[in-house]
């Protein structure tokens, strides 16, 4: 079986980066796409799990690139992205057959456009397809995917993207998917910051946090952030590692601040939230799920003392 994406025939898929989000995304491609899938990750555990589903595990990105026509990437940051694409054992090393790269990571808009230009010189199409929602959505194949691509590329890629996501939005040309994803995270982080602050103030004022959040959920302050991060994590104080750590949140809001600077916007809310992330990381919570900012707010907030 093969499909055509952006005018390129695709007979086999690759997946590089089988972490918290990448592993379940790859699992959905293996079970739903009807195509052979090759994958790689530094850790053996996801390779074994996915091999049991039918994925072929390989030793590095270059080995994936030698076998796959279209490769999905889901890595932590821009440095890893450049390494898996252009490094010594990267996707585009000698012998590569890659025709399309679909980057599901969250990195800077400038880097996305630089990578796209670099691979275009080798006849490769670059698509930024940043994903949103949590691991549960990755497992269920219900991610939100924000795509930067030409209209024809988006339409031809959509059947594969629907293996991992239920909501696909073409945001514009290359880089636009990253713009929208960065701003999605900016708004979310600021909302959770506000919820954590409100919870700390309510508790310090002798109001039950559950009562506060129940009232918010019934009024104009209702939101997905309130129901998931607020009620699900802030209230019970549940901040597990390997969910979405504060370090990653700080990286992403840093991308928003950079984008704001490039566009001449004074992003005051983003600066405040970035500062809180910095203080929370310095307090030893960098690996914890980022709503852990509540611990820092309650420790130092003037009202909470």
From TrEMBL:
GO terms for molecular function: 2-hydroxymethylglutarate dehydrogenase activity. Residues 13-169 form the 6-phosphogluconate dehydrogenase NADP-binding domain. It comes from the Bacteria. This is 2-(Hydroxymethyl)glutarate dehydrogenase. It is an enzyme of class 1 (oxidoreductase). Gene3D superfamilies: N-(1-d-carboxylethyl)-l-norvaline Dehydrogenase, domain 2 (1.10.1040.10), NAD(P)-binding Rossmann-like Domain (3.40.50.720). Its EC number is 1.1.1.291. Keywords: NAD, Oxidoreductase. The lineage of its organism: Bacteria, Pseudomonadati, Pseudomonadota, Betaproteobacteria, Burkholderiales. It comes from Paraburkholderia nemoris. It holds the Pfam family NAD_binding_2.
């Amino acid at each position: 079986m093969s499909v055509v994406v952006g005018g390129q025939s695709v007979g086999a898929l690759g997946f590089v980066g089988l972490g918290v989000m990448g592993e379940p995304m790859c699992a959905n491609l293996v079970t739903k796409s009807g195509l052979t899938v090759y994958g790689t990750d530094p850790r053996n555990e996801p390779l074994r799990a996915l091999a049991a589903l039918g994925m072929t595990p390989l030793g590095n990105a270059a080995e994936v690139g030698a076998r796959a026509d279209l490769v999905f990437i889901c890595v932590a940051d821009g440095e890893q992205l450049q390494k898996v694409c252009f490094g010594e054992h990267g996707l585009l090393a000698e012998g590569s057959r890659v025709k399309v790269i679909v980057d599901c990571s969250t990195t800077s808009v400038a880097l996305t456009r630089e990578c796209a230009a670099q691979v275009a010189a080798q006849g490769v199409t670059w698509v930024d397809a940043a994903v949103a929602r949590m691991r549960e959505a990755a497992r269920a194949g219900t991610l939100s995917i924000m795509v930067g691509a030409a209209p024809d590329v988006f339409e031809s890629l959509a059947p594969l993207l629907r293996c991992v996501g239920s909501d696909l939005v073409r945001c514009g040309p290359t880089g636009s998917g990253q713009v929208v994803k960065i701003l999605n995270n900016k708004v979310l982080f600021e909302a959770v910051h506000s919820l954590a602050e409100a919870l700390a103030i309510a508790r310090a004022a002798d109001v039950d946090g559950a009562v506060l959040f129940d009232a918010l959920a019934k009024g104009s302050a209702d939101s997905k952030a309130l129901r998931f991060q607020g009620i699900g994590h802030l209230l019970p104080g549940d901040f597990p590692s390997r969910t979405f750590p504060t370090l990653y949140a700080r990286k992403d809001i840093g991308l928003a601040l950079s984008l704001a600077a490039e566009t001449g916007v004074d992003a005051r809310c983003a600066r405040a939230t970035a500062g809180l992330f910095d203080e929370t990381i310095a307090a030893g919570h960098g690996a914890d799920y980022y709503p852990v900012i509540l611990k820092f707010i309650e420790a130092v907030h003037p009202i909470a003392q």
